[in-house]
Amino acid sequence: MALLRIPKAIFKLGAVPATEGLCGRHTQLGSWGWSSRMTIHSGRPVIAAEGLGGDGVGGVDAGVSLVQGASRGLGLEFVRQLLQKEKGHVIASCRDPLSAADLSSLKDQHAGRLTLLPLDVTKENTIEEAAKLISKEHGRLDLLINTAGILHVSSLKIQPETALLKVNPEAMTLVYQINAVGPLLVMKHMAALLKKGGGKGTSRPAAIIANLSARVGSIGDNGTGGWYAYRASKSALNQLTKTASLEFARKRDPIVSILLHPGTVDTDLSKPFQRNVPEGKLFTREYSVERLLGIINRIDAKDNGKFFAWDGQEIVW
């Protein structure tokens, strides 16, 4: 399928609001040190354990950021918070930017700071073309956030499997393609741009790749079973990201790759399963992304290849 080509004029966007910091307070023990934080969420104090999570994002110079899977859910919220609370240029990609109403609204608010690009993780030629356009326009990347993923698609009869007898090979292949292979292909084609960016001139020590995984992808944490395709696809994403992180380190590329578990968030992906979520554990998109950006903005070289939960704690493989 040929890449949808959209005139550059479509991508240049509205008026920039004043930069605002994130809500909450934190104490930081050094430039990239550890800290303890308290944030108010759902009317109750939530205390982050010692680790990387936090809410201190305001004013960060993020350079050039790419959010893949940005039309809705967590991807859209990443775009919104990067624009509102950080400095730099944001590139938002999804399969069809022209039909993404919320992204169109954001471009009316942020003149010159947001670029929309068509990118379909199941079609490598669209990823390659997006990389070429980013190279031509910016010549670098400093942050890549891969958010696209599927758990259930009613029109394709894809549902989390509750029993072995419900495993369908076609469904498993599609889930694996979108949740694991897709992000890896984006990393493949954006790696050269991330190497050029390297975090130089930003508030971070290196370029960052943050792939959204899930705790259910942890083999060591699997105590309930079920969800064969989704679990396996996230386990695969963990392995692929870890493997790429070792390659970057071996080549001394200025790129740090991490995996992030956002918690259970109130999005379309989790909606059919929210009745089973304990009280206080269903997060808003705003809260989850705030915490994840706090992690990203405290990442150091020693964190390359690690898997973090929303509260900054490492998750067992």
Automatic annotation (TrEMBL):
PANTHER family: NAD(P)-BINDING ROSSMANN-FOLD SUPERFAMILY PROTEIN, SHORT-CHAIN DEHYDROGENASE/REDUCTASE. Pfam families: adh_short (PF00106). It comes from Physcomitrium patens. This is Short-chain dehydrogenase/reductase SDR. Gene3D superfamilies: NAD(P)-binding Rossmann-like Domain (3.40.50.720). Belongs to the short-chain dehydrogenases/reductases (SDR) family. GO terms for molecular function: oxidoreductase activity. The gene is LOC112287757. It comes from the Eukaryota. One of its GO terms (cellular component) is cytoplasm. InterPro entries: Fungal_SecMetab_SDRs, NAD(P)-bd_dom_sf, SDR_fam.
